[in-house]
Design a protein that fits this description.
single chain
Length: 252
């Protein structure tokens, strides 16, 4: 007998998955150095089990949701947007997962805020507890990001006064903004192209990679993708100048 599933069950299964990710991240995430558990400790092992169990549940929920999207009565795009919001909710306040890049963003934002040259100096030149969170391989590497993102990071640094918890939440919110722009753009681009808007949302915004890399990791790629999608929507809507501006911002 086939396992019965519907939109509500898919939504709940994915929510449980991201909740496990958030809980496991409390001991196995990319935590600040002072909060890292002892290597190979029971706490770290338990966190890793929870994180990867959450990944499995999230992927399962996404696959089942895809069967609904491709079925005879697919959910409406609005219903899928609710699923995305529910799945992302536990990750909003979770520690960074799978990457320490967000600490580089914060350190480079603090450098820009103090008028240091982020392109010729690495976070090591900043020093202090914020720079200490950056992965060793990036300590002496200049920023690869454009002035638009560094301007945002600098503004966030000034707004949060360099406080790490507030900075992490700020970067996570910027990533969520990027994902929201993606979710706005994808169904519109699909309609312009004669494709299924629900399938575009399922594949492009609800994809576990989006939640794991862009949201959980608080990566700035989310803003780039969101602005790029918005620019394409504007260009297809006969606003080429606005589209060009948005696509250019995405690259900066």
């Amino acid at each position: 007998m086939a396992f019965p599933f519907d939109l509500r069950r898919c939504r709940l299964l994915g929510l449980v998955g991201t909740a496990f990710l958030a809980l496991g991240g409390e001991s196995a995430g990319a935590l600040p150095e002072a909060e890292l558990p002892a290597p190979a400790s029971a706490q770290e092992a338990t966190g890793l089990v929870a994180v990867y169990f959450g990944v499995v549940l999230l992927i399962a929920a996404w696959v089942l949701l895809g069967r609904l999207v491709r079925g005879p009565r697919p959910p409406a795009p609005r219903a899928l947007l609710l699923v995305l919001a529910v799945w992302a909710a536990p990750l909003v306040l979770a520690p960074p997962l799978f990457s320490r890049d967000v600490y580089s963003y914060l350190a480079q934002g603090a450098m820009a805020d103090t008028h240091m040259d982020v392109y010729t100096q690495g976070p090591a030149a900043l020093g202090g507890p914020l720079a200490d969170q950056v992965a060793p391989m990036w300590q002496h590497t200049g920023a690869p990001y454009g002035p638009a993102f560094l301007g945002l990071a600098s503004a966030l640094s000034g707004l949060t006064r360099g406080e790490l918890p507030a900075g992490l939440i700020g970067m996570r919110l910027l990533a969520l903004l990027g994902v929201a722009l993606m979710a706005f753009a994808l169904p519109r681009l699909a309609r312009h192209s004669g494709a299924d808007p629900a399938a575009a949302l399922w594949l492009g915004a609800l994809n576990p990679l989006v939640l794991l890399h862009l949201v959980a990791g608080a990566h700035n790629d989310a803003l780039m993708l969101g602005l790029l999608g918005l620019g394409l929507v504007a260009a297809r809507g006969r606003r080429p100048v606005l589209g060009a501006v948005l696509v250019t911002l995405a690259a900066l």
